[in-house]
């Protein structure tokens, strides 16, 4: 039994548990209730036209998910409601997602949802209604310092850590966040076993992957239906046309598959997406080495605590489930300037860079532009 | 605990529980010819007679169903099919826009799948259909009307319809009128025989009977096409082995609902008036839904709109304090939609999100009203600060 008190606090809190219908959020809510908090479950209806059933591991927010969440709440013995945040979700997450791709960037909608929905729209409503905290099934830890300040840390189990998608949370959001699964050193199987032991039927439910609002997993198709087809050229680094595409928005920097370039590269090596230019609707491809990035600039920084002053040495994570890499970062005129100790590959504007000091999340920012090793060498 | 959601379901009466449990141990299919079957049949027919008497109907006019929803579907679809089969020109279905979804969705289904032309009748700010409006709609082309359907009393805002006058209009044109009387039965006088209705829906669990049993009161001149085909029970209109214990208990509840109606209306009506006064005192800007004249609404219904509040928020806050009520609107995937009833009465959609329905019943007490009086002010203040998401 590794279940521990979700938050070391002397008084029971009124907690609103966001319950997706999955196993993690159900166990999180159960742990919060077991720890003596006054927990109310809420399922967020995020789609205006929910599908009836889940298909495999894809999507969420179906009527079946809502029902699974309700059943879990019944078993835990907590009140349960469904809140309709579909309009806010559409505006802040889905439209943002489409606009970012349209602009040639690669957004992370889960991160945006945490920033704008779970720890903004939901949290604000929860606080107004008299709740003290919002609880989710994320794997991350909130540590309360002696002076009452809070720090966000990676989960005890690095393999399951989700602090990256929570890196956008600021002080205030963190002050009301509860992650009961964060200090678990268990495998997913053990979480499932705990769910089973607690009588939660979601114990055997498959994990959800992919993007919840694209039920069939076809991101390209979704974008095409939203943005229409816009044929353009695929060019190599010299500017020579090597193929065509049906919409520059459908590509991500570092992408190799799905380019459908007829003629092979002169050196016979695989080619990757190097750049996406929405303005002239071209996609530039080239060898892997051209993807190497030595520095980047990121905007809209958010800090889990005080903003650092002067340059500092951190580790950085550049995508969900990505590796850590050592960096030097400095805040200059509101922008984060980051240089990498060693070149990294496949950095896509639009994605978040999250800075860590050890296991502590320092803050995050949205990648705006990168400096390529090749370019730097030329310069 | 203050249970103020009797319009959703009301506790079973002890007499109905006794009747039901007594029958649960008895074997017998009411369609069987042997002694056990005859015994069951007798129980059913006695129940039919009891219910008929309670509703001013003849026993042969009582068709048992699985509940209000089925009775509504049978009336709307069955009468439509029968009338259209007799004359293909009859495709118009006239309905009030404040119907329960059991009628509304059945009517819409006819429009989408059976070639019906659905026309929603205008209602006033209290959700009431005026006989002249019905007359105008029918008179536009009387020969093309399949049926009209207008509920006796609204489940959300409690407004009573002028059923007799509406039925008179229909009678002039020989058009059958159906009324969903699920909420009206036991609260206002409901007499099928003098109503002029072709068909009328009642339900067991809204009057202290069991779930899963209801009836369509069906004039003898009307033979709706069945929705359920099978063994030919219930005038060949509704097949299926009868649920004898439920039928017996429903009849007991129906008899008591009729017997106790006047006292219920007086006592529960007085509690309701107190609740309305208490809410208005605590939240002066609260808007009472439906007809403010007590004579024009159900005695047990109090419906409010709280400007700037989300009904869901209020429900959560009151639920946490043991006060159980409803937002009054239907859910889609568990998500509250602005009530079609309020929208039909011309309420602004944003305003329509901030509703609560308190519905009282035979177990309601002064303590229930006091609990609401104490909780509603702070709950509204808090819900307002949470705003409309």
From TrEMBL, chain B:
One of its GO terms (molecular function) is metal ion binding. It catalyses: (sulfur carrier)-H + L-cysteine = (sulfur carrier)-SH + L-alanine. Gene3D superfamilies: 1.10.260.50, Aspartate Aminotransferase, domain 1 (3.90.1150.10), Type I PLP-dependent aspartate aminotransferase-like (Major domain) (3.40.640.10). The keyword Lipoprotein does not apply. InterPro entries: Aminotrans_V_dom (IPR000192), Cysteine_dSase (IPR016454), PyrdxlP-dep_Trfase (IPR015424), PyrdxlP-dep_Trfase_major (IPR015421), PyrdxlP-dep_Trfase_small (IPR015422). SUPFAM superfamilies: PLP-dependent transferases. Belongs to the class-V pyridoxal-phosphate-dependent aminotransferase family. NifS/IscS subfamily. This is Cysteine desulfurase.
